[in-house]
Amino acid sequence: MPEVDILSLKKTAHREGATRFIFNSLSQENIAHVVDLTSNNLHGECSCQHFQMRVKPMIKQGLLDPYSEKARCKHIRAARHLFYEDVIREYVKVNKIEIDDLY
Fold first, then answer.
1. Cα-Cα-Cα-Cα dihedral of 50, 24, 81, 58, to 10°?
2. C-alpha span between 70 and 93 (Å, rounded)
3. Are the C-beta atoms of 49 and 33 separated by less than 8 Å?
4. What is the pLDDT of residue 23?
5. What does each C-alpha distance from 77 to 44, 54, 96, 98, 101 come to in angstroms?
6. pLDDT digit string, tens, across residues 53-74
7. Does pLDDT of 4 surpass 70?
8. What backbone phi and psi angles, to 5 degrees, belong to 62?
């Protein structure tokens, strides 16, 4: 399966709380996928068919390490990226770090 451009996927995201994201489908009109980063023992869970029908059963059967990248669908990867960006932005703000100081 070709790698989805995270930037394109992030453009469809709507935040529903600090760790919950909704992504509009890039391939199907009127379909949305919900990601909760605190579910699944903090590994994240997605409502998309790929995660629910393939990934989640393999994790439950012990066939897939929940820490591996293969245990994350494209929506979970995009949500984690958005969450990390927010954490970094807040860290910079709280610690009064000048962006120029980072380089």
1. -10
2. 33
3. no
4. 95
5. 9, 16, 28, 28, 28
6. 999 999 999 999 999 999 999 9
7. no
8. 80, 15
* pLDDT at position 1: 39
Three-class DSSP labels, 19-63: CEEEEECCCCCCCEEEEECCHHHHCCEECCHHHHHHHHHHHHCCC
3-state secondary structure of 89: helix
Q: Residue 65 carries which DSSP code? A: -
Q: Nearest to residue 38, comparing CAs of 46, 26, 30?
A: 46
- Look at strands 45-46 and 20-24 and give their pairing: unpaired
Q: What is the pTM of this model?
A: 0.84
Quote the DSSP letter at residue 74: H
Give domain limits for the chain: 6-102
